[in-house]
Amino acid sequence: MKYSQSTIELIRSMYCDHTAKEIAESIGISITTVYNLVYKHGIKKPKEWIFNPKSGGFKKGERNSPGTEFKKGQTPHNKGKKVQPHVYKSLARTFFPPGHVPFNHKPMYSISIRADSGGIPYKFIKIRPQYWELLHRYLWMEAHGPIPKNMVVIFKDGNSLNCQLSNLDMITRQENMLRNSSNNVPEHLKEVVKLNNKLTKKIKEHGKKQTK
User: Fold this and answer.
1) pTM exceeds 0.70, yes or no
2) pLDDT in tens, 97-130
């Protein structure tokens, strides 16, 4: 249903100091409609609304039910007291028994696939309790040792799920940046960029050998 501009302006003027329920009852529309209209037209509450008693909020240092909260340094009334048997019995079903293993527990060296912020999937391996490492990094370090700070392990074929050691290589972050930038060039130039990167790498390797 389409609402007139006058209705929208009326909601805009009331929304700053009235609840959605009050506006809905006043105009004769549903609360859901009020929320839909304010969202659609970018109508927002002012920052001062949080201090309005109608908002249900409260000022810093205040509580809705004064005297019910613990004060800093106050000793809980049940400190040192044992739970009554009948209370413990009623709550026992909510306790985890000793040695309980959560349903989502993964054993050591389990493999999991997760996507990064760009949506690219990667394999992770659990190598310590509550700690997962990228599988391709783990396999590389197992075979070649620690990865220097300025180096990254990449996939030769571009498949982030192909973690075979033969498909992995270690390059500098700068080389990786150039490698990734090749994806933004026209298709007919991609091979040229790849060959240039390989040539640059070979030149660096040759220079290192000459200095030894």
Assistant:
1) no
2) 777 777 677 888 899 999 888 788 999 999 988 8
- HEC profile for 104-129? CCCCCCCEEEEECCCCCEEEEEEEEC
Topology of the domain covering 111-211: Homing Intron 3 (I-Ppo) Encoded Endonuclease; Chain A (3.90.75)
pLDDT digits (tens, 9 = 90+) for 44-101: 888 777 777 777 665 555 555 555 666 777 887 778 888 788 877 777 777 777 777 7
CA–CA gap between residue 144 and residue 175 (Å, rounded): 20
Hey, where are the domains in the chain? Answer: 5-55, 111-211
CA separation for the pair 42, 124 (Å, rounded): 42
Residue found under tokens 């809705």: 64
Mean pLDDT score of the chain, rounded to an integer?
80
CA distance 97 to 195: 61
CA 153 – CA 192 distance, rounded (Å): 22
What end-to-end distance do the CA atoms of the chain give, in Å? Answer: 79
